[in-house]
Write a structure and sequence with these properties.
- The chain is mainly β.
- The protein is built from 14 helices and 60 strands.
- The strands form 14 sheets. Strands 1, 2, 3, 4, 5, 6 and 10 form a 7-stranded antiparallel beta sheet that branches. Strands 28, 29, 30, 31 and 32 form a 5-stranded antiparallel beta sheet that branches. Strands 53, 54, 55, 56 and 57 form a 5-stranded antiparallel beta sheet that branches.
- The chain is globular, with a radius of gyration of 31 Å.
- The protein starts with 7 loop residues before the first strand and ends with a helix.
Length: about 900
C-alpha cells in the first residue's frame, strides 16, 4: 500500500511519492533529527518479512554505506524495512535520453563522473551490477550521482532463482512503466556473462558503462528488442551499429567504446580507471568545431525558483581574478517561465557581469529581474510589472524596458523608474555611450531617437525617400555609438541593415530574417533555427569569412521570424541564448454538424491555417519548419491525407494565409515581406507582385481578383482588391477608421463576408460586391472567421463563450437580411485562432467541418549560457 504524505517511518516523515519498482515504493521524506531531506526506499513485503534476506540485506547495506564519493548517492542506513538514501535532485539520464542524443561536450564530462564513481566502488570490491541511465542522475549544476550501488546483490534470491525475476528486479521505475518495460530496461545493459547467469566481476560494470556512453552519444539503445528474450539474444550475438556514432566523436573515444563492449570479458577493458584516463585526455583536447547545444534539465522554473538561475552558472562563468578558459564553456538550464513570450530571453550587460530578464513576480505578473552571474539569487525590480524587451545602458548600471505603451529606465539595483518616451507597440531598443536611446515605438513607425534623460521628446530618424525599407525593428548600436544594426524589409526580402545617427542613408548588410548584435569581432544573427556568427569589422563595417553555427537551437517571439532570443556582452565573451521550443502542434480534425468528431486528416504538426480548394479535393496549409525558420505552403489530399510542399521555401521565408484560385490550379499567399506570390500547381510560371504588408483572404469565383487584408498599423487594417491583370496595384474595397479583416467572397461573387470592430468588438458582416447596398450584420454577440457554404445560403462564424471556448455559429442568408444566428456546436478547447488566417473549412454544404485543433506539447523553455564563446572560432580562423 502506498504511503501517504505525513506517514512516519522512524524519524522520517514522508512528504511525497517519487516512484515505484521492483525494490518497492520510493518516497521523499524529511529527517526530523538532522533536518534534511532523504529518499526512502520501502522494501517489498516479501523482503522485509524474510529474516534471512533482511539480514543479508543489512550486511550488504553496511558495506555500501562505506562508499563516500561525490558521484555516488550515499546510503545512510536502514529504518523499519526502508533503505534511507541521499535525495538527489535533477533528472536521470533515461529522462534526458528520451529527448535524443547528448552532445559530445556534455556527454564526456558525464561519462567521466560515472567512471569516477565506478572506480571508487571497485577499489572497495563493490560492483554496481545494474548500471543504466535510470540509475544515473544529473543535478542542475552538472554533478552526476550514480544510484543503487550493489543493491542488485543485496536483493539476490537464494541460489537457483532466476536473475530476471520480475517482482524482485532492482530496477526502479515510475508507476506508469509496465513490468515488461522494467525488465527490458535492465536486460539492455546486462553484460553477456550476466545475461547468461554466470558469475560476474567489475568487468560487467565496464560493459554497462560502455552501453550507457554509446547511448548518450548516439541517442539510441545499443541493444534492444520487442521482448526480453530478443533483447538478451541481441546482447549475446548482435554487433553494435558503430556507424551510428556522430562524426565528431574522437578516435580515442571510439576505441574506448570498442574495448568496453567486447563480448568476451577476457578481451574487455579490465579497469574502469583506464577509461577515466582516456576520457581525461579526450576532454582536454581542444574543440575547434563549436559544440552542438542542447537542453540539460527541462523542468520549467516556478515563480519561487527564479533565483536559482545563479546556482546553475556559479563556477561556470567566473569573473574577477579567475583565468579565462582557453575553450568555450557552455551550460543549459531551465528558464524563467514567460521569458520568451515577452522578454525574449535574458539581456547580458555590456560588461558581461549581469543579466536582465522578464519573469513572473509573486503575484504572477511579469516583471523585470536582474542578477549578477556570480550571484546565487536574482532581484525583482519593484514597479516594473508588465515589463518587456529589456536592454542595458552602456555602463551596465541601468536597464531600459517597455511597459504600458512607454519606454522607461530604471537602475539595475532597483529604484525609481523614469518614463523616457511613448512606445505603443515597441520593436526593440538600444542605448549608446552618449546617452542616446534608439528605438522603434511601434509597427510601421520607424526608428526614433531620444535622450535617456527624458528631457526632450523622441524624434524620428530621417530616411531617404528613395530607400524603400519597411517593417524596421530591433536596432543595436555598434561600438562607435553612431552606427547601428537594424532589421527591415527591402525589395520584399528581410535584411540586416547598417544605419547611422548622422547619415540618413542605410546599407543592406546581410539577407537574414533576424535581429543582429555585434560582439567580439563577430556579427551574431539567427538563421535556420540556430545562432550564427560571422567575422565583422566594426570599423570598416564589412563582413568577411564564413558564417559558423554556434548554437543549434534558438527561440524567437511568437508570430515573428526575426526577433530571436539571444544577447552578448561587449566584453568578457559572455553570451546568453533562449530556446523557446514550439509548445503547440495542431491536428486537422473532422466534425459533423452536431459537433461529433469524425476523425483526423494527415499528421499533427506546426499548422497555422488552412484553405479548402473550390473542388474540395485538397486543402493548402501553412506549415512551420523551425529548423529552416520558415513557414511553407503544403497541399494535403482530402482522400488520403498525403501532404507535400507547394514550394521549397528559402530560410526565413513566409507563406502566410494561402488561398486557392477559382479553378483550384493556383495558390496565392503572402511573402510576409510586402509581396503577394502566385504559385502554379500545373506547371505555369509563378508570379510575384509587390502589394505591401498584407494577408490574402479570398479569391473571386470569376478568377479575376484576390482580396487581401492590408495592415496600416497594428490595430487597423483595410480590405483591398488585387486584380490578376494589369499592374496589380491594390484598390480599396473597405477603407474605414476601423479594423476590417477576414474577407470572404460568396460562391457567386456578389457578396463579401468580413469582420469589423466598428461596434467596439469584432462582429461579422456581409456587404455586396461591389458595394451597392447597405451591409448586413450577421453576428449578434461577437463573431470572427466567417465562411460560406457551397451555395451561399449560409454563413458560418465563430463566437467566443465566457469559458473561452469557441462555438460554431450559422446564419441563413435571406433577401436583404439574415436569420438570427444559431449555435451548431462547441469546438474543443485549444483551437488555433488568428485573425489573419482561416482555421477551419466547410465541406459537404455544411455537413462537415475540418478544424485546426491544438495539441499541447510539454516543452519548457531553456537558457544556454556560454563563456569565451569566441575561442573556438578564433582558433579556426
Amino acid at each position: 500500500m502506498a504511503l501517504l504524505p505525513g506517514t512516519r517511518i522512524g524519524v522520517y516523515e514522508v512528504t511525497a511519492s517519487l516512484g515505484a519498482g521492483g525494490m518497492g515504493e520510493v518516497y521523499r521524506a524529511k529527517d526530523s533529527r538532522l533536518k534534511r531531506e532523504v529518499a526512502l526506499k520501502v522494501l517489498p513485503a516479501d523482503v522485509a518479512n524474510d529474516r534471512e534476506r533482511m539480514a543479508r540485506f543489512q550486511r550488504e547495506a553496511e558495506v555500501l554505506a562505506s562508499l563516500n564519493h561525490p558521484n555516488i548517492a550515499q546510503i545512510y542506513g536502514l529504518e523499519d524495512g526502508a533503505l534511507v538514501m541521499e535525495l538527489v535532485e535533477g533528472e536521470d539520464l533515461a529522462e534526458r535520453l528520451r529527448r535524443g542524443l547528448i552532445p559530445l561536450d556534455e556527454a564526456l564530462p558525464i561519462a567521466k563522473q560515472i567512471a569516477d564513481a565506478l572506480e571508487a566502488a571497485h577499489e572497495q570490491g563493490i560492483i554496481h551490477r545494474d548500471l543504466k541511465p535510470a540509475n544515473i542522475k544529473v543535478r542542475p549544476d552538472g554533478t552526476v550521482k550514480v544510484l543503487d550501488f550493489g543493491l542488485a546483490k543485496a536483493l539476490d534470491e537464494p541460489k537457483g532463482s532466476s536473475p530476471l525475476d520480475l517482482e524482485n528486479s532492482p530496477t526502479i521505475t515510475s508507476p506508469a512503466m509496465t513490468m515488461r518495460g522494467m525488465i527490458l530496461g535492465t536486460a539492455a545493459y546486462m553484460a553477456p556473462e550476466q545475461a547468461r547467469g554466470r558469475a560476474i566481476d567489475r568487468r560487467a560494470d565496464i560493459w554497462a558503462f560502455g552501453v550507457v556512453l554509446y547511448e548518450m552519444l548516439t541517442g539510441r539503445r545499443a541493444f534492444e528488442g520487442d521482448d526480453i528474450s530478443i533483447t538478451i539474444a541481441n546482447v549475446l550475438k548482435e554487433e553494435l551499429q558503430w556507424s551510428a556514432l556522430p562524426a565528431g566523436v574522437p578516435p580515442s573515444v571510439q576505441r574506448l567504446l570498442r574495448r568496453c563492449l567486447e563480448k568476451d570479458p577476457k578481451r574487455r577493458l579490465s579497469s574502469i580507471g583506464d577509461a577515466r584516463l582516456e576520457l581525461d585526455e579526450s576532454e582536454a583536447a581542444p574543440i575547434v568545431t563549436p559544440p552542438v547545444r542542447h537542453r540539460r534539465n527541462l523542468v520549467p522554473w516556478a515563480v519561487a525558483a527564479v533565483a536559482t538561475i545563479g546556482a546553475a552558472v556559479v563556477g561556470l562563468i567566473a569573473f574577477g581574478g579567475a583565468r579565462e578558459p582557453v575553450t568555450p564553456v557552455w551550460t543549459s538550464i531551465p528558464a524563467p517561465v514567460s521569458t520568451f513570450s515577452r522578454g525574449l530571453g535574458p539581456a547580458v550587460s555590456p560588461d558581461g557581469r549581469h543579466i536582465a530578464f522578464v519573469a513572473p513576480d509573486d503575484s504572477g505578473s511579469e516583471s523585470l529581474w536582474t542578477r549578477a552571474l556570480t550571484a546565487q539569487s536574482a532581484q525583482m525590480i519593484e514597479g516594473t510589472s508588465g515589463a518587456n524587451l529589456p536592454f542595458w545602458s552602456p555602463d551596465s548600471r541601468s536597464v531600459a524596458f517597455f511597459k504600458d505603451g512607454k519606454l522607461l529606465t530604471v537602475p539595475a539595483v532597483g529604484g525609481a523608474t523614469m518614463v523616457v518616451a511613448d512606445a505603443p507597440n515597441p520593436r526593440g531598443g538600444t542605448w549608446n555611450q552618449d546617452g542616446v536611446i534608439l528605438f522603434v515605438p511601434g509597427s510601421g513607425l520607424g526608428l526614433h531617437r531620444v535622450s535617456a534623460s527624458g528631457a526632450a521628446s523622441a524624434v524620428p530618424l530621417e530616411v531617404p525617400a528613395d530607400q524603400s525599407t519597411t517593417a524596421i525593428s530591433w536596432p543595436s548600436f555598434l561600438p562607435d555609438g553612431q552606427h547601428f544594426l537594424f532589421t527591415g524589409i527591402r525589395d520584399a526580402q528581410m535584411w540586416i541593415h547598417i544605419g547611422s545617427l548622422t547619415d540618413p542613408d542605410h546599407t543592406p548588410l546581410l539577407q537574414a530574417a533576424s535581429k543582429a548584435h555585434y560582439a567580439d569581432g563577430y556579427l551574431l544573427f539567427g538563421s535556420k533555427g540556430g545562432l550564427y556568427a560571422q567575422p565583422f569589422d566594426a570599423a570598416s563595417l564589412a563582413l568577411s569569412g564564413e558564417r559558423v553555427r554556434i548554437v543549434d537551437e534558438i527561440g524567437a517571439s511568437v508570430g515573428s521570424t526575426n526577433n530571436h532570443s539571444f544577447s552578448a556582452s561587449a566584453t568578457r565573451s559572455v553570451i546568453a541564448v533562449g530556446h523557446r521550443p514550439f509548445v503547440r502542434e495542431a491536428q486537422l480534425t473532422w466534425f459533423d454538424r452536431n459537433g461529433a468528431r469524425l476523425g483526423v486528416l494527415g499528421e499533427a504538426g506546426r499548422i497555422f491555417g488552412l484553405s479548402a480548394s473550390p473542388d474540395r479535393t485538397r486543402i493548402v496549409i501553412e506549415r512551420n519548419d523551425s529548423r529552416q525558420n520558415s513557414v511553407d505552403p503544403w497541399i494535403v489530399q482530402i482522400d488520403s491525407g498525403f501532404a507535400a510542399p507547394v514550394r521549397a521555401m528559402a530560410e526565413g521565408a513566409l507563406a502566410s494565409s494561402p488561398v486557392w484560385s477559382h479553378d483550384s490550379r493556383k495558390v496565392f499567399y503572402s511573402s510576409g515581406y510586402g509581396a503577394m506570390l502566385m504559385a502554379s500547381l500545373s506547371g505555369e510560371t509563378d508570379e510575384r507582385w509587390p502589394v505591401g504588408i498584407h494577408w490574402p483572404t479570398s479569391s473571386s469565383p470569376d478568377g479575376r481578383l484576390v482580396m487581401i487584408q492590408q495592415e496600416l498599423v497594428a490595430t487597423q487594417g483595410d480590405l483591398m482588391i488585387v486584380s490578376l491583370t494589369g499592374d496589380h496595384t491594390p484598390a480599396p474595397y473597405l477603407q474605414t477608421p476601423f479594423n476590417e479583416h477576414s474577407g470572404r467572397f460568396s460562391p457567386d461573387g456578389r457578396s463579401v463576408a468580413y469582420v469589423s470592430n466598428e461596434s467596439g468588438r469584432d462582429e461579422v458582416y456581409v456587404q455586396s460586391f461591389p458595394r451597392t447596398a447597405a451591409k448586413i450584420r450577421i453576428s449578434a454577440a461577437g463573431g470572427t472567421h466567417p465562411e460560406w457554404n457551397d451555395d451561399g445560403r449560409e454563413v458560418y462564424f465563430l463566437q467566443a463563450q465566457p469559458s473561452g471556448q469557441r462555438s460554431m455559429m450559422v446564419a441563413s442568408m435571406l433577401v436583404g437580411r439574415s436569420s438570427p444566428p444559431r449555435r451548431l456546436f462547441d469546438l474543443p478547447p485549444g483551437v488555433w485562432e488568428d485573425s489573419g488566417r482561416s482555421m477551419y473549412a466547410v465541406f459537404d454544404d455544411g455537413r462537415r467541418f475540418l478544424v485546426n485543433v491544438l495539441v499541447p506539447i510539454a516543452a519548457p523553455q531553456v537558457l544556454t549560457f556560454g563563456q569565451n564563446w569566441t575561442a573556438a572560432l578564433n582558433a579556426a580562423k
